[in-house]
Write a structure and sequence with these properties.
The chain is mainly beta. The chain is built from one helix and eleven strands, in the order βββββββββαββ. Strands 2, 4, 5, 6, 9, 10 and 11 form a seven-stranded mixed sheet that branches. The protein has a four-stranded antiparallel sheet with strand order 1-3-8-7, with no helix packed on it. A hairpin with a 6-residue loop joins β4 and β5.
Amino acid sequence: VQLQASGGGLVQAGGSLRLSCVASGRTFSHYNMAWFRQAPGKEREFVAVISWNGLSTDYADSVKGRFTISRDNAKNTVYLQMNSLKSEDTAVYYCAADFQSVAARTMSSISQGIKDYDYWGQGTEVTVSS
């Protein structure tokens, strides 16, 4: 599956942005989708994940209550709504896809582990000015 992320930009602290990631090439609804981010000089870290059917979500503690992940399987798109942005949210944001077999889809499990994700988008840069 190919992933194309967009929606990044420069925003003031306290502001909002919505990231989008469009998938193509495979059946989008067979994948759990996640957002990760990588700040300058730091390792890539988990931000949020949503199950293939949209019923399960999970967030990093640092973004809980401020970020919301959602998906539209009809549009092959996953979103990350980011509110109350802080300077520490500045990073390149990547969307990622984790294929779920038929058996896995019956369990609706989701993962924060970077190694579980098979496909990655190119990243979109978010800069939050204080």
